């Protein structure tokens, strides 16, 4: 995950303290899939060298501003992020703000706050560090009630432009200014890269009692690659649910999973990677197969859950009337069961949609597991029809090996 350019809009930074801005940067650096923050308030406080109480106050402010939110389980999510895949093509949707190291260096943080905001706005919001992405502006747009900065006069605006020239290549004229780029000195200080995926995967592995102290960091990255692919294709809810089921399956069948354990519990330097053999890719391939099996198990689990809900609903409907009057208790049971039923149906529909997308690329896997898929309930209907049609085509055209 990367920082969203809107995070650096100078008009939203007017009342930010140094600590609050640092927290925004940290949240953008550690957030993972869907913006989930895999660190506790205590861990955030430790990273910020402050108290948990102070972090709690700052998070409350960010929640009020719509920069973070909590789900029903109390999990923290950061909402100013951009999801960028490693091999993503350049587009407006994938534009993100780099977290340059100089943003939090003492020299920059000692500058006048309006100088900081101007620099952050043009580096983070307007992205002038991208070659050729220069910007023009009017000096009178910087001051006044509707101005970009918290200043009142054109003299103050010119003073800020001159001080900002320490960080940015700026041309200043009578009424206008032009921001060309960031001075190389500050770019050379480097940038702070995202930790979110690695932190999130490690947290999930710890939850499922993997011995993370002995786990190869390279192995964690390979597992994260599979999770990233699922998240990109199927979204947060589905990807995280399947990931959790996959880890549970591995730990439940320890003897069968010994091959996987041998792959991940190694020193980083022990992996063979050459033209003939790539042991790192073998980790992601193995884990992907576990994720795919977990999808089947998850679908079967939902199927049983749906059957239980339908039985409960049927019993309540059978006993709806008592002494020729509607039973209020059973009426509530029916309504609750209906809501639960719709929730499970939605999850099964999502599985059906995800499977349809993957079927077009790898139909063989679905043919191999059709004996399990065909027993699933109604929401898994279209994929069954596609598999059956593919099997018929294969019988009629035995030399055909792919979907046309």
Word description of this protein:
Helix content is 54%, strand content 7%. It has helices at residues 18-30, 41-48, 52-64, 106-109, 113-125, 154-164, 184-187, 196-207, 217-234, 236-252, 258-264, 279-318, 328-359, 363-368, 370-373, 382-396, and strands spanning 2-3, 68-70, 76-78, 81-82, 135-138, 168-172, 176-182, 321-322, 325-326. The strands form four sheets. The protein has a three-stranded antiparallel β-sheet. It has a two-stranded antiparallel sheet with strand order 1-4. It has a two-stranded antiparallel sheet with strand order 2-3. A hairpin with a 2-residue loop joins strand 8 (321-322) and strand 9. The radius of gyration is 27 Å and the shape is globular.
Q: How many H/I helical runs? A: 16
Number of domains: 3
Can you tell me the CATH class of the largest domain? Mainly Alpha
> Looking at the structure, what is the overall shape?
globular
Which runs of at least 5 residues are low in confidence (pLDDT < 50)?
Answer: none
By CATH, the architecture of the largest domain is named: Orthogonal Bundle
Report the sheet with the most strands, covering strand number, pairing sense and barrel closure.
3 strands, antiparallel
CATH superfamily of the largest domain: Winged helix-like DNA-binding domain superfamily/Winged helix DNA-binding domain
Tell how many strands the DSSP assignment holds.
Answer: 9
Q: Please state the CA-atom Rg, rounded to the nearest Å.
A: 27 Å
Strand order of the largest sheet: 5-7-6
Strand percentage, roughly? 5-15%
InterPro entries: WH_DNA-bd_sf (IPR036390)
